Amino acid sequence: MTGGGVPRPVKMAKYLRHLGWDVTVLTVHGAGPVDPRLSVDGVATVLRVREWRLGWLLKVVGGTVRVLRLASERFARRGETGRTSLDRGFAYEEREIESSKIGWVLPALRAALRAHRTSPIDVAVVSLPPAASGTVGWLLNRLRGIPYVVEYRDPWTVGAFWTSDADGRPRSDVATRARYRLTRRLEATLLQASAGAIIVNGEAHVDRLAAAFPRQTAGKPIAHIRNGVDIEDTAPERGSDATTPVLRLLHTGFFYHFYTPHQLISALRLVLSRRSEALDGIELEFMGSGFPEHLVQELDGWGLSHLVRLTAAGSYSDALAATRRADGLFAVLPALDSDRDRLPTKVYEYLGTDRPILIVADPAGAASNLVAGLPDVLIADNRSQEAIADAFASFVQLARRRRADGCPAENGKRGEPHHYLQRAAEMDRFLHQVLNHRNVSAGS
């Protein structure tokens, strides 16, 4: 299994090649085999660059920020008796600083300059956050005049998750305020020198970015080009196993920081007390890593541990195959303002199947807007335990019915509007717009 950001550049490279682009992918060197569905052999040049080992420095900086923040939060909460999600083990301390890949910047720049000498680069697409890729783009622009566009795979300082705690309460400690100011200035610098921006998540982020950085984005194109699904990867395979009495409900992907399924797991207690028949003969499989150990303990205490199966992360192909063998698919987003615009890659992969889907998210957020009105897709308000419990029971009922009678043919078409062929066409138009705008500006 790969991170959610990996399929996008691979699929974009694949289909941009069909549209006449010569694509080079500059990435961090990684170990292990490459999944065939994530290989760009024959469609792109791949430059894998090892990063300098700066882990010790990043651990010191990240650790210092956490110590200062926790000390401030504990002082501010003195006298309070309630325990936070972090205290209860339902969320993790965020480690964005440690995973910033700063040690990759200079080696990557050197590789990019060599590639530019061999075959001049017309435009660079750099993903944010973290800032490493954007810094490479900024340096290429300064040193060689290569235009770059920033691609926001997640919001950065506009809705940064680390400016609040795991329960959504704003952080006001000195370390967080200083980090926010410095990061905001860095984002402004990268936007100022860019030739445009791409928003991958919710469309609301387009207006929010322009409002937050009016001077840096003025006169530059901002495109909303979401993730998608490669229809060629979703060819029918063996369906759910009707010979076993267990109804298999699947979640794929990793958990990290504040992104855990504790809202759904906690709601199972309400299902048990109100509609216990919905829990008979079901299995919730979490394929990936990071499921909080404290949630396992809570499940055991509630007598519900037999419902959950934790499966090790597999390859991207393994995850896709698992979605087509399951009876139902579900995704859970944190009930935080920072996640309102988030569109998890797994949702598009789910839409590439014909299975019933449950999305636990903000009803007015990007994920809910993406799937609203689609057949056999249920949405539950992630801020309401009652709503999650009711939706889960309905989801189980629907999955049982579809398992017995089969899924409607229209379900298999849910992913077609999100084909990466269409996304690449959007990217092609945007990049030509950027280059044309640059040529006009240079000639005036």
How many domain units? Answer: 2
Strand count, sense and barrel status of the largest sheet are: 6 strands, parallel
Q: Any idea what the shape is?
A: globular
CATH class (first level) name of the largest domain? Alpha Beta
Q: Give me the CATH architecture of the largest domain, please.
A: 3-Layer(aba) Sandwich
CATH topology term of the largest domain: Rossmann fold
Strand content: 5-15%
Classified in CATH, the superfamily of the largest domain is Glycogen Phosphorylase B
Low-confidence stretches: none
> Helix count, per DSSP?
14
Radius of gyration equals 23 Å
- The ordered H/E elements are HEEHHEHEHEHHEEHEHEHEHEHEHH
Terminus-to-terminus distance: 49 Å
Spatial order of strands in the largest sheet: 9-8-7-10-11-12
Q: State the share of residues found in helices, binned by percent.
A: 40-55%
Structural class: alpha/beta
In total, how many beta strands?
12
Overall residue-averaged pLDDT value: 91
Could you explain how this protein is built, in words?
This protein has 444 residues and is an alpha/beta fold. It folds into two domains: 7-228 and 420-443, 3-Layer(aba) Sandwich (Rossmann fold); 231-417, Rossmann fold. Helices cover 42% and strands 13% of the residues. It contains 14 helices and twelve strands. The strands form three sheets. A six-stranded parallel β-sheet has the order 9-8-7-10-11-12, sandwiched between helices. Strands 3-4-5-6 form a four-stranded parallel β-sheet, with helices on one face. Helix 9 (293-302) links the parallel strand 8 and strand 9. Helix 1 (7-18) packs across helix 14 and helix 8 packs across helix 13 (385-405). The chain is globular, with a radius of gyration of 23 Å.
